[in-house]
């Protein structure tokens, strides 16, 4: 018997197909989504994974059985589904497992206007209701069941993004893009190329644009340095001004400079924050607690109000709503925009980077230098059975050098020299995640290695 607690995570549904996630489960979740939210109409879409269309169809069967009409948006990136939710004013369901391997699929759910549904905002109720349907059978169809229609929104999505960031007047740029066989291969030609709209002054050099949910070239997870190597090589090989790498569902974007060096998501967050603050002076800007401490420094220097939050899109979107923040960024390259229904879109962040680069004559390396102030470890995962005891051990190890601690998300320790480290447990796997930042690479490496020795002992 399937236990939905195994696949309903903090922010979404994610599991292996078909043993954990199949049409029966999707049908139950579709019915439960309508019962819990009261939706009378919703949008649904899927990425390039082969199981997506049949899972979406089963979800739609469950939803229509309970009286809701379903708008099938078809093939989409996650941020295209968020666009559909905002543009049409409908709740949404996106079938994707993001960067996970090919055997996985999942569902990201939102209310109308791309408002997230997570553990603390309705996902538990959906899980419990769907589990009841799996255990006891689906409720009888309502007297007036819903229907399924199709509406493709790629051109409208591209047009909307181009209105937010106008690239038509920038200097010509050569842009290498690694779509990782994911949805960037579908959305990049529409937004940055001439697939749907007029051409921009961009020469796109494509890598792995073929949609293939088996990910034959590399995992569609640019957060792992090994998955950026092909793009870094291509940027140098063709003399590109910038490189962009998208994850599987293309809601995240990673940036490589013309020398082939990765630009940290913290630097991207800071640069985009400055641009958004120029349009909305004095606004709040969200950053999660793993981003560089340069981010709140730069936000404040440009008249903004930095707001620190825990990791995770549902928390950040909620904080953006509370503070009316103009922008938010995470260390994982999720970027959130008030102008995009507070949802995350890697494409819009990429367009800001292209605009910033194309509006001046310098290189991307020169442009981002002022935003890279400290040395960071990046996120390092360790498989740990007893996560709580290892966190306690890390706290004890650094106790004599600690100036402050907090437990907003895991444990953050600020050391007396201004360096900091964070250890936090994964929401989905038996992992401890470590992030370290210090003033120099040597200082960072020393703290990183000391903390890892404790975690892995």
TrEMBL record:
Keyword Isomerase: yes
Residues covered by the Alpha-D-phosphohexomutase alpha/beta/alpha domain: 7-120, 156-260, 269-374
Presence of keyword ATP-binding: no
Pfam families documented for this protein: PGM_PMM_I (PF02878), PGM_PMM_II (PF02879), PGM_PMM_III (PF02880), PGM_PMM_IV (PF00408)
Assigned keywords, A-Z: Isomerase, Magnesium, Metal-binding, Phosphoprotein
Domain Alpha-D-phosphohexomutase C-terminal: 379-451
Entry superkingdom: Bacteria
Cofactor(s) the protein needs: Mg(2+)
Similarity remark: Belongs to the phosphohexose mutase family.
Name of protein: Phosphomannomutase/phosphoglucomutase
Source species: Jatrophihabitans lederbergiae
